């Protein structure tokens, strides 16, 4: 027997079952993504223990983990006293993008301006172990600015932070 469109009742039932299964799989996938995000946060907290043990206040550790890799690159360049224009030229991004990154850092660090970023973060960067910084930064090394923060030097980390 057909449903008027040439489909048999069996085909219609099979399509309904496939649709229901697809809905269930989507729900499971969403739940797994939430669980994965929770696990990442828990592992981040575990990783942060080393930085806290080094004497960095927990709120600043949280700020380091909250920053994006691009913000970490910009942070290192701000600590080197670079202007937004210099950062944008070096990273080959619009100056407005650099401003966005720095404004985001200011908010995450709870400071007023880039001078406050430097005053707050110089001692923090001195205390943070290099391996812990790499985990907090999403893969950007602590000495990125010293090695790759100048034009013309190939940057193997560009794919991590650049918005290509």
Automatic annotation (TrEMBL):
Keywords in alphabetical order:
DNA-binding
Question: Organism's domain of life?
Answer: Bacteria
Q: Where is the signal peptide?
A: none
Q: Where is the HTH luxR-type domain?
A: 64-121
Indicate what this protein is called per its UniProt record. DNA-binding transcriptional regulator, CsgD family
Among the record's GO biological process terms, what is one? regulation of DNA-templated transcription
Keyword field contains Ribosomal protein: no
Keyword flag Lipid metabolism: no
SMART domains of this UniProt entry?
HTH_LUXR
Q: Which Pfam families match?
A: GerE (PF00196)
The record's GO molecular-function terms, alphabetically, read: DNA binding
